[in-house]
Predict the structure.
Amino acid sequence: MIWCDTGGGEVAHIEDLAVFVAQLNAAGFAAAMDARAVAGPWGRSLQFDLAPWLREGPAAPGDRLAVIAAQQLGEARLAGMRHLAGGAGLACTAFGSFASRQAAIGAQARLAFALGCEPDVIDLATHHDQKWLGFDAPRIGVARPLPEDGVPSVLLVGPPLQDPRDGAALIGLSLMSSLRIAVLTDGKTKQAWTEAQGHAIPFYQYGEVPPASIAHRVHALALFEPFQKSYRLQSLRANVAVSGGVLLDCAQGHPIAAEDEAFVRAPVDLAGLGAFLASEILPNLARIGAHVRGAAQTRRLARHDALGPLAGLTALEPDAAPAGEPARIVFMPTNGVGLGHAQRCRLVAGELPAARYATDFAVFPSCMGLVRSYGFDAAPLVSRSPLHSHPHQNDLVNYLRLRSLTRSADAFVFDGGYVFDSVYRTILEHRLRAVWIRRGLWQKTQDNGIALDREKAFARVIVPAEAFAELNRPYSRGPQLRDVGPIVQGLRLEGAARARLRDEIGTRYGTAFRHLVVSQLGAGVAADRHAQLQAICAMLERRTDVLHLLVIWPTATVEAGWFCWQRSRVVRTLHAAVLAAAADLCISAAGYNSFHEAIYGGWPTIFLPQTGAFMDDQMARCRAAAERGLAGFVEPQEALKLERTVARMLDDGAGAETVRRLTSEALPAPGNTDAARLIEEIADGRQPKSGDLRPDRTARRG
Amino acid sequence: MTRPGERQRRRVAIVTDPRFPGGTGGAVAAEMRALAPVCDLSLVALATAMFKGRRLNPAIEAALEDLGLAPCWNPAVVHADTLVFHNPSCLRFDRTLDVRLSCAEAFVVTHENFLRPGGAEGFDVGKCLGLIEEALVSGRRWLAPISSHNRETVSDWIRQAGSDWVCTAQDWFNVIDAPLVAPVAAPRDRRGRHSRPGPEKYPPREALLRQFPPHAERCILLGADSLMKDGEEIPRHWDLRAFGTSDVGRFLGEIDFFVYFTHPLWRESFGRVIAEAIAAGKLVVTDPDTARTFGSAVIASDGSDIDRIVAEYVSQPARYGAFVRRAQETLARFGAEAFRERFSTLVHKGQGAAFDLV
């Protein structure tokens, strides 16, 4: 194990440390950080950068310590290293840019006293003539095979975008069919661009992902400003170079190429860059890349010469995929409000040929029972909790679990509205073939900017349709998008089977009934449905011909008041659909699954939408069904209307009429199987891996 | 001291940064007091980068006041018969030494070991000596080690660096002028140590715990700033005091055994705190390298047998008293009169293979 630490305690030092450790690991070294030494009030992004590499000290025999920015060493950081060494001598290699030989001697002495062992001190400042060395930390080149098929990708780093003409030129570049572009810039510029222009061009901000997670997508790296002071960019440059990418100096006056012969001088304005790339670079991509990779300094980067004695440590063998095993697909549904995402994922997973694909799930606790009940393995994720110190604390844990679970995965399927940091980072870090099942009908007031921004990590986005055409709205465009029919469990129960089940229900609950009513109003997370359920129970209590099953998920909260009714029974089950299919009336929320199960199952239903600001637009679904006469629709506050509507459905024949209309309604064919086939394509590698730099347009036009 | 043909009194310029805390400052102050009666003494004060913003060492300040001298800060030129440059390591952070040092003979007193145990350089010796060489116009010049261990590190550095500096034949020892205090009649297991708070002054925590165990009646660690800040739980039986927060004399009055070990990768060049502890009537236990300077006046130990040593002397008060009194007698070797003799020898009796400019 190589423990890593930094001499500086500022956020910039910790960021560099995170990059350094990530680079070491990507290069195959077992590197980590002492959790105690890097604890701090860091921002969310940095917490995610650090999380995978945190370990508890002290160091074990045979471990080593690597210290960067050793010229900054102060007492507080030395104390942390002393704790890590734990009284036993800890071998150490320290890197830094020392203002004088005395500074290096001083750092060596301080480390020796802290670690009980003389360290190797490598003064990077003395090697400034060797451009392959960094300043505070050694540059490490991590080679990744660049995709040879498809369109070359160009990453523009810090392009000028203040002038509207530059923006127009960037859009012009993005329209070239011979290349894909993406932009790496600061957070402010990214925000300004996406607010004005949307997500058609993938924008990354500098700290968004570690350099090793993005470099493998870059055939050409175009830098518009000197980068020597940024270890993150130095590492990106090193990774691109050793992977055989092309390095372009687009900075005013070409200061980078003046110091670094691996760089090609390129136009400094975006307007001129397209023609230059088309005529000079793209036709010679392989030749220039080979030249860069073969350059002496690139070979040193690939050999990790800058690491000094650390370079000789045994590197980890990369994970080898077991031969002959079925392709492994990991599904991750977000729990959402109900179990809709999990239900949808298990429906799609069930369509995958079991002989060819092994499916695992990573699910929140509320979904564990459901997923396992269908025979899938499920690893637990951690739900958000107000007891956590940060809102994203659970996601940090989930990130580690997902990283571990997907290490050997062939494909990753995410179903949810918000792409968590854990999901986004795991996909990029493991270069997963990732699929996003993204149902639509977002509310107009919802800000899904982050989710759409992270769409760039997915190789494919499967959009399950709504049953009614006017509800389908596009949120992004591009070849990665695939529309499929509604993903739905269409459970119809008819004839003897339905009669038998109703008899069993009557027997089980000791209540004779003429009408079976099933209510399923959701998990109660988005809104308190207690009052509505009590009203329904009270309303149905006045009837003598009804048995009312109040159906809730096993994980939902049960209210004591529900148990005081004669004609209502609380049923905790994962299989509500079976009960609903046997009912004369279903009173239901209008989430995607509940709604489509009712419509495709032909169940007479009154919809009571949930209206949480973060949920899908259930009102729109309800209106669409009601306007077609396919369901009753009662808004949450309309208690009297609910009673009238129930009476109409049960007593005035409206229920039967609804069933008749549902039976004759031309609905789109379910998309369960299509979704599974689209996932198979990705898992089999019949489509590019996730991370096309421009997912919003076809691979080759014209 | 005066020889025929010489001026009445030799002009001796002491050159140093008078803000040195700890041993060097104390040694310079004592040396000034020792030499003032026999020389025309001046203190050339260098404002080095190492002690930027620090105040004058109190011992030097007191000596200057007592001797009626004022420091001469950063003069352009220094003329003297004999120039004594105390502790070249004060130049470690400077790029230039903007003074012309003109003298017949120069002694550069090496208060800091040139090499640490294991051979790592203690500071940028070549740079510091180089600055002095550039500033110095001298008939003869020497490096003057202050102890046998210090001499070894200086000699090893000279050999490794291929330097043309040479060492004086005899050590330029620290002057110890502390008043002698009689040892207690009935010593108890009251242990203590005193040093500047630097990490080099402290052994690893595990060793320190053995040297200052819970069963000791007192464990006072003066100058323990880094231990107080390092985030580890402080053993309840340790009485940790920050550097400068306790009067040293009062602290020494609270202990009977001065247990002094440094980090194994660093060594004292002389060990002035040890001499002060002996003068205060304490029995001193220290590592063999440091013990060599004081011979039989201290007990050399590898740190593993402190409990046994303490128990023996606690159970034999007479032996304790005899040991400390004998140790105090040997301190006379480091007294002002002895130093004047040594100074005279080094200045007047030649140095054998001394580097000669003319």
Notes: Residues 27 and 174 of chain B are 5 Å apart (CA to CA). The two ends of chain B are 26 Å apart (CA to CA). The longest strand of chain B covers residues 100-110. The longest helix of chain B spans residues 22-35.
